[in-house]
Amino acid sequence: MRLYSLHFDYWLLESLKTIGNKLGHFLKISEETLKGRYTSFARICVEMDLSGALPEAINLEVYDEEWV
């Protein structure tokens, strides 16, 4: 999955794992994302249950700030 417009504070491995686990089950992060090859999106692999509706957005709280 590609995460567009993601603030750089969330590009850390633990942050991306948290995002992935909110969407389903985090599996891995792409090498390109780890090496910073892309700056417009971060890419992670997430196992999700596709029998239901996909979430439109997720809410994250970091440093007392909420991001959607």
Give a written overview of the molecule.
The chain has 68 residues and is α+β, with helices and mostly antiparallel strands. Helices cover 22% and strands 31% of the residues. The protein contains two helices and five strands. The protein has helices at 13-23, 31-34; strands spanning 2-4, 25-29, 41-47, 60-62, 65-67. The longest helix has 11 residues, at 13-23. The radius of gyration is 12 Å and the shape is globular. The protein starts with a strand and ends with a strand.
The first-to-last residue Cα distance is: 16 Å
Total helical elements: 2
The assigned structural class equals alpha+beta
* Alpha-carbon Rg, integer: 12 Å
- Main sheet: strands, sense, barrel: 3 strands, antiparallel
- Helix fraction bin: 10-25%
Counted beta strands: 5
The gross shape turns out to be globular
- Give the SSE string: EHEHEEE
Biggest sheet: strand arrangement = 1-3-2
Proportion of residues in β-strands: 25-35%
Question: Overall pLDDT, averaged?
Answer: 86
Q: Flag low-confidence runs.
A: none
